[in-house]
Amino acid sequence: MSKVRIYTLAKDLGVENQRMLEILDGLGVSYKSVSSTIEEETVDLIKQILAEESTEAATETVAAEAAPAVSAPEAPAKAGSDDVAPVASSEAPAASATAEIPHRAPVVTIMGHVDHGKTSLLDYIRKTKVAAKEAGGITQHVGAFEAQTSKGRIVFIDTPGHEAFTTIRARGANVADIAIIVIAADDSLMPQTREAIAHAQAAKVPMIIAINKVDLPQADPDRVKTDLTQLNLVPEEYGGDLVVVPVSAKTGEGVEELLEYISLTAELEDLRADPKAAFGGVIIEGRVDRQQGVLATVMVQEGTLHVGDFLVVGENYGKIKAMNDSNGARIKEAGPSTPVQILGFSDVPNSGEKVASAKNEHAAREVVASRQSDRRDVENARVQRRKTLEEMMGP
Ligand code: GTP
Ligand code: MG
Hints:
The protein is an alpha+beta fold. Helices cover about 40% and strands about 25% of the residues. It is built from eleven helices and 16 strands. Strands 4-5-3-6-7-8 form a six-stranded mixed beta sheet, with helices on both faces. It has a six-stranded antiparallel barrel with strand order 9-10-15-13-12-16. Strands 1-2 form a two-stranded antiparallel ribbon. A hairpin with a 2-residue loop joins strand 12 (about 310-315) and strand 13 (about 315-325). The longest helix is centred in the last third of the chain and has 33 residues, at about 360-395. The structure holds guanosine-5'-triphosphate and magnesium ion (MG). The site of magnesium ion has 4 residues, from helix 6.
């Protein structure tokens, strides 16, 4: 009896992974993730269930089409709702509420120990997957980029592995939907690998392990898996639920599989954002360019940014004078899950800070003024407390 992976079966049968998991739940079959395998008998049962569902749907549609006027009162309504979405009518309102909010691309942060190959891995993905656009204009230095892959659009954030950059890694984990922990196959788990894993766990972000440099003769992926087990992270092939993908940033081995796992994880997370909502985003990085002035990389999380919009970050505001996508192309607007580089702030914003938009310059100034006054109040209160304490202590 051969076993079948859940996502492979879902693909073969043309069913969403989520639906497949619902059927398994209904059958009381346990699984760890969509990459878990199931028995052939279960496969037969699933096929039976799906066949019954499609026969029922077909019968209802035929009944509704054949006799719309004389059918039982509930029949047209039921057939109608089935046409819209294959969900039970009791769940329809909730389901249609989320269905209106479109899916968004996953934001994937790459973390790991210094020199384990994070940037090389991203370079490989970028080189082969990003539609070739000439880099020009203001983008040369973004830690975030979007890639059109065979699995759809994916947004990647690179982070440094050097021990000095703990806060950057923590912030990277916080904006991520998925964390890829890169571990070199010739070096295994190192201090910043453990740190990166801890950040992903603290941020409650699903993790995928990429064992990199498997092309090296001294590569020992099994040692990496055993070492992970000691952290209570058990790879799937050892019976756990940790997805581990051996890759090489040099040869490209395993990269397609890694992208596949990213898209599967994203599908299960059901990531959505409303491009029509009020804008919300976060600063990925800010810096000064000698020729152009202050440049800020912003991740759009909610709503849509337009050139000319006023933005407020902390006690700093600015008007978007120009905006580039991560490939260096000038763009006029950017929707959810898009990293953009913005020209228009007068001061360098801090990484990790929230960005909001304001209706006009007046509104932006007001938000900044109220934040400044709130901060002064807090500072004055602190000074007052210290004075009172000193008075109580006496001379
Ligand atoms: P930091 O950003 O400093 O933390 O390093 P990093 O993790 O981004 O590593 P980087 O991509 O800079 O790679 C470090 C070194 O490993 C470079 O010399 C790469 O050429 C090499 N390297 C990266 N990936 C591979 C790989 O898959 N195979 C081999 N043989 N070498 C690799
Ligand atoms: Mg790097």
